[in-house]
Amino acid sequence: MLGRILLLTVLALLSLPNECYPDGLYFLTTASGVVYQTYCDMTTAGGGWTLVASVHENNLYGKCTVGDRWSSEQGSTPDRPDGEGTWANTRTFGTAEGATSDDFKNPGYYDIVGEDVSVWHVPNDTPLKHWNCKSILRYHTETKFLPNYGGNLYQLFKRLPVRFNAGACPANNGPSIPIVYDEGDTGTTSNLYSPNARAEFTPGFITFRVFNHEKAAMAMCSGVKPTGCNTEHVRMTYCMIIRIVQ
Amino acid sequence: MLGRILLLTVLALLSLPNECYPDGLYFLTTASGVVYQTYCDMTTAGGGWTLVASVHENNLYGKCTVGDRWSSEQGSTPDRPDGEGTWANTRTFGTAEGATSDDFKNPGYYDIVGEDVSVWHVPNDTPLKHWNCKSILRYHTETKFLPNYGGNLYQLFKRLPVRFNAGACPANNGPSIPIVYDEGDTGTTSNLYSPNARAEFTPGFITFRVFNHEKAAMAMCSGVKPTGCNTEHVRMTYCMIIRIVQ
Amino acid sequence: MLGRILLLTVLALLSLPNECYPDGLYFLTTASGVVYQTYCDMTTAGGGWTLVASVHENNLYGKCTVGDRWSSEQGSTPDRPDGEGTWANTRTFGTAEGATSDDFKNPGYYDIVGEDVSVWHVPNDTPLKHWNCKSILRYHTETKFLPNYGGNLYQLFKRLPVRFNAGACPANNGPSIPIVYDEGDTGTTSNLYSPNARAEFTPGFITFRVFNHEKAAMAMCSGVKPTGCNTEHVRMTYCMIIRIVQ
Questions:
Q1: Which residues of chain A neighbour C22 with C-beta distances below 8 Å?
Q2: Keyword annotations for this protein (chains A, B, C) (predicted)?
Q3: Sign of the CA dihedral C3, A92, C109, C36?
Q4: What is the DSSP letter of A93?
């Protein structure tokens, strides 16, 4: 199944208790008054999860091409060590209902103050009503780690920039947060990867801002904790978001 | 006038009786609760037409370049036989009022259940209030064929994938639906093309999912029914949406 | 500080008295019924300014690449003398809150009838609530010149096309409108540029549709009036929006 995960959409959800009720689409309003519509999950671990972003791999064979709004749409060059800067700015794009067919980022990404993160791995082009049942992996953190990093991914990546050469592996890697599985388990996670790739990580974590030997920065290794600094060798497998500048 | 049609925007409208009233912009809500704003036409053939998409040719000289969201923004390669997959997914983009200056696709594309299809050929950058009077061709089907294909273009292209090598010409071409003209006629349609191109089609139809000898798939040949399998030779004329992978 | 201005976002605001009240985000409706949300400034010169667009330089080293929606996302070629045509069409993109991290253009750009123009130079990625205090330059016109050009930038650039070879320098350059500074002054403006560049302009103006010796057209030279026709030599400094086709 090597590479299969790249066909999946990652839905990053932030905890937002008491904001949503049944599963489905809701209108929310930011602190500054922006109104937006997104998906809320009220069933996982007591509910309160709000979809703030999806990462969609539209081309397994293209890296840093048009449509890669989370990394770079203009290739990787030394001139742009931050790529698009999407992880730490307020640019938004896409729609909740199109989140499995396109990248998605809404104002909740920078506006919501949350405690934990949930990730769903959903096959490309799955309709919204089937996200839950069709997901291949679903898991969430329970350590309430987000407030230590500003309460959301926008603030976390302000503190831990996804920037070439902003640090070294392993000293400057961000936190590895243990996860609780809602669909699948550590075995399922490992089975998504090739035997070679499995030697490079421990399943059961979300790891943020990971460097490799080449000083490239990855925003997230979702589902795993790297055990070395060779993430570039398996970058198309368990560390989905990578930007290499060399 | 060879090639002139490529400067036109195609507005694909689905029948939606009793949903709209005067011509103009309306707010609609999908089954899952997505709210969007689009144009409705209440004058053509009794009305009830809702704009769900426009196809905008932003560069006559560029094929499969940035902005070609209906085909491929990353060129044509064997790695991506479906291109962007736009015809059969829930990704949306653009706005109704910008539909003659940019590609447009709204949630109605996959949400509305319709009976017939209408197409308007409108010159680039025409303001919304002049779409009707400035259109070069307007026509619609009356056979109520859409329910046989799922009720909308999203479902139709799920059944008839716009994918390289998904079938052969002419055996696997989709249906050619006869049209009724609201502006122009079969002569107007033919006159849009060069004498050579005219030998390759019969005007008076919308034809869906057309293959050519090279196994490339076109989503629509709007206004015509191909009579052969050389659509690649006139692809910039009467078959606007083409994706070649070879 | 050569080149520093290129990192800034330009917020073009049109005068709209009595439409907005405190500074912040508002819902507005166009003549045709489009509803959109944008920022209004009620403090500058009596207020009434509505944000209609921002120009964001996402790559100092890339020209006419993906993300350059105001010029061309497909490079500069003789085939496309108008580039994307964004200055004179109704295509919209981006969000008000993301305007310092992405290009932004809303329906107010073509719908609002205004009298004057204000421009804010704000560093990239500045949050909305800090736009005012973090701006490096803020200035506005007071001559009520816009009605002479149709009342907004859309109409102005219909009359003064930003098109290669549509005119010659200096005979066909558009108007240079004097500005009043709200943050900074003519010295601050000049200090943004290199000594060599300073010889090419007089600060204290917004100049529209400027040609150079090579017949390239720039939409705006914001903050300055060119004194010659060598704007291409300093194009990355005081004339931000340039499109070269040769």
A1: none
A2: Calcium, Disulfide bond, Lectin, Metal-binding, Signal
A3: negative
A4: B
